[in-house]
Amino acid sequence: MSQYIMPVVETPMGAVKGLRDGSGELYRAIPYAAAPTGLGRFAPPAPHPGWSGVRDGTQPSPTAPQPTRDFGRLDMTPYFGPGWVRGEEYLTVDIRTPAADARKRPVMVFVHGGGFVTGSTRAALYDGSAFARDGVVLVTVNYRLGVPGFLDMEGAPANRGLLDVLAALVWVRDMVAAFGGDPDNVTIFGQSAGATIIGALLATPEANGLFRRAIMQSGSGTGAFTPEQALRVTAAAAAALGVEPTVEAFAAITDERFLAILPTLTGLDLRTDNVTDPLAGLSPFSLVLPVQPADSLAAGPAADVDLLIGTNTEEGHLYLVPAGNLESSTEADLLAVAARVYADPEIAVAALHAARPGATPGELRSSVLGNTLFGGGTARMAQAHARISGGRTHLYSFGYRSTALDGRLGAAHTVELPFVFDIVDKPWLHGDTGLLGPGHAPVGLATRMHAAWVAFAETGDPGWATYDPQQPVAQILGG
User: Where does 2-477 sit in CATH, by number?
Assistant: First the structure.
């Protein structure tokens, strides 16, 4: 009986014990790379040596060092998870599969969001039961965050968090068959920072052949910092820590101190002579690239990869509504955020008012944030991919308005996730402070969206027409 409840999978790295339930089998905290400790926190991911005996895959993984994030009255714990759960071996994956057998099922690899500083596989939103129910092997990935993951510095490779995801994809190629997955039919998908990482992988030569399809939910193809912008963040971090901006100096610093300085880095002025801040001051970390992914897709696997991409209609509401700033925003607040992201903020604000004459300063501020962080970079990525891929691009727009926070949250950033994972009935998503608000969400929408994601992973077709750059129309979901 115990063997039935706790199946064991033999992999090339060693045996793993998991759990079996009504949704299939679950294997947790499987390392895809060696633990990043000491100087290794700033090195490329190293191969894991494997293990002898049977590894316990029934307990969740430690998480990357990360701060606690507060969204006022809105309960975002299902999105962020438990925060920093200490433990060195956190470069791990969780696998939810119908069965660890010889069948070759579609594989979906999920990369979480969290502004490049928070998030993990332990977040309740990433429950893969519905994917396993529908014949998909779901893999969720932890990667390095914050200073170890994304601070650019002398002597260390850039974008170490992205290199982690790349290493996880190599692991999936080599190991997922043992869990009932098809290594030749992998879809990588992610949300927010995770989607932005996927956009970069589409332009990364080393990613060739590691995935057949990609889904970018509320990410950006233009969200990377330039090396000059990254240098400003590094200089500020070194000054806050009182050390030189080198990998040797940073290797001596504890993760606790890295987290302690984060408030001093958030909100830095990253505008330069030729670029504005792609993250509008909300995060001091992003990918660091000389060319934005939307402008360098031909360098990677993008032309041979199907892409499903889209945003929510009120993305910026997440950053304003929970703190009461949607109603309290003034023209000065609107101009301040515009100054971060537009070369001529006065002209930009005048154009916003002309386009939406009845909109409040808060609504326009939300629009600026949503377009800067996600909308503009998504449009650029969709256009660029459609041009080089020959009809492999599908665009969506998610418009279901959450009734959370007295009905004001709306179609904010992250609201689509429970629909994609088909978990809208979970009680912890409801109530006035839950992500979906009081009452019942439209279950039919979750059924349709989840089915579209599964169909895309199986065939490359989510069920609607491909994107045409000459007539850029998006499939409306829940609007």
Answer: 3.40.50.1820
State yes or no: is 366 an active-site residue: no
Banded pLDDT at 1 (limits 50, 70, 90): very low
Taking the whole predicted model, whether its pTM rises above 0.90 is answered as: yes
pLDDT band at 2 (very low <50, low <70, confident <90, very high): very low
How do 24-31 and 92-97 pair as beta strands? antiparallel
Q: How confident is the model at residue 479 (pLDDT cuts 50, 70, 90)?
A: confident
Catalytic residue among 413, 416, 430, 450: 413
**Which position among 25, 315, 363, 416 bears the catalytic label?**
315
Order of strands, sheet of 19-21, starting from the edge strand that comes earlier in the sequence = 19-21, 24-31, 92-97, 137-141, 105-111, 181-191, 213-217, 306-312, 393-398, 475-477
Buried (b) or exposed (e) across 118-147, using 16+ Cβ within 10 A? bbbbbbbbbbbbbbbbbbbbbbbbbbbbbb
328 is catalytic: no
* Domain extent listing, the chain: 2-477
Tokens of 412: 């904010």
CA 105, CA 95: separation in Å to the nearest integer?
13
389 noted as active-site residue: no
Mean pLDDT computed over every residue of the chain:
96
Q: Which of 211, 141, 215, 164 is nearest to 183 (CA)?
A: 211
Say which of 120, 192, 218, 286 is annotated catalytic. Answer: 192
- For 130-154, what is the mean pLDDT? 97
